[in-house]
Amino acid sequence: MAARVSTGIQGLDEVLHGGYIRNRSYLVRGEPGVGKTLLGLHFLIEGVTQGENALFINLGAPEADIRADAEGLGLDLDGVDILDLSPASDFFVENKMYDIFTSPEVERGEFTAVISDAVERYAPERVFVDPLTQFRYLSPDEFQFREEVLSFLQYLKENGCTTLFSSQSTQHFPDDDLQFVSDGNVHLYYGRVLHHVEVTKMRGSEFEKGPQTVEIRNGGMQVFPLLRPGRFKLDYEPVPISSGNENLDALLNGGVERGTTTLISGPTGVGKTTVAMQFLLSAAERGERGVIYLFEESENTFVLRAESLGMPIKALAEQDMISVMQVDAHEHSAEQFSRQVRREVEDGDTRHVLIDGIDGYVASISGEERDLISRLHAVVAYLRNVGVTTFLTSEMETITGQFRPTSRRASYLADNIIFLGYFELGSRLHRSIGVLKKRASGFDHAIHAFSIGDDGITVGKELDNLHGILSGTPMWYERDIPSLEELD
């Protein structure tokens, strides 16, 4: 297997299946300001961290600006050698010709000598040339430019360098030729909301296809690869997980199985999140950590409401058995969210996850709805593959009316479906609960009364004398309408 060198960006290493192949050359391309230089700096800094010599051949912005920009993002360039070949101010002020780029026939030798001297002096194992397209001004035509580039990259290879080089592509001077001569192409570009990176070529290696999300913030660049759930597999026993509520467990033939996904649907305020919380609280009390992602409610409101129902969220959070995370609108891409979930599972030993709810996820996460549901499916599949028990909530738009399991046709995500609803009885609204689907075992097919009080949830008697409950306006088979207390 070919030796690899890290890109300095964990997510990009995953996309490249371990990093760049050592002693090869790679093109970093993209529009101005998209992050090409930053990606190259990560590569050099990682080399210094690994005890390697790293050389930046700078043909663009002045060295002082590069160091200032890096420092502004929290990057430390100490240990990175910089050969600054950017134009100096005296070119304009004193009307001097830029020595390196004046006459190609005369100055090419001087230019190559400067670079070869630096390579011999610093003996770099990593080189970043930014941008290599400046070599065009040393060449009388495109054929000569291609030959110069091939010769230069071969020279670096023979000196044991792994090389990154960027391009400045224009309408009149595209970088197609550089894409052909490189061993790999990394393309950075702007999306509708976020930056993206896509690897389009990697000689001698597989790589992850398609666009990956990029974030640039303090600390530099981060890449969030698409989640491929099929690559994660953990053996586990699908034993039933109790909710801690005897009657709710009875509906589900003992609970939901470990590693399954349960969708809880119903109209607003009916108790979807509260039912899901029963399972997470019961698990936390058994020593199994859970994480709650809030898409439709603030963390403060959620905690206050849970505590008012006798759910000890604060105490369990202090013990790190429950973590509540509010996901703000448009602060995450689907890939960033999936990375956050993976971190909680793989680093935080999380065994139960509540995503509350699907509609808020679609509204809050950046991207097209169809793609977002697909990404959510990947997260759910990943959690299932590693034995994490998952709960999703989905809100129905109407309080009563025609029954549907979910408003977004997301029922295929679930192994189990619990539905909650309102029904009108005696001019008052009451709640009901039932199970629509359970793949791993049988379940109670009856609809039961349901209520929420100071002590949490109550699953009451079977509503066997009511007809039309799911429509919201049932008919009673007996003459007298029972009281709610009788149903409970």
Structure write-up:
This protein is an alpha/beta fold and 488 residues long. The protein folds into two domains: 4-226, P-loop containing nucleotide triphosphate hydrolases (Rossmann fold); 231-487, Rossmann fold, CATH 3.40.50. Helices cover 31% and strands 27% of the residues. The strands form five sheets. A nine-stranded mixed sheet has the order 5-4-6-7-3-8-9-10-11, with helices on both faces. Strands 16-15-17-18-14-19-20-21-22 form a nine-stranded mixed sheet, sandwiched between helices. A hairpin with a 2-residue loop joins strand 10 (212-217) and strand 11 (220-224). Helix 12 (334-346) packs parallel to helix 14 (369-385). The protein is elongated.
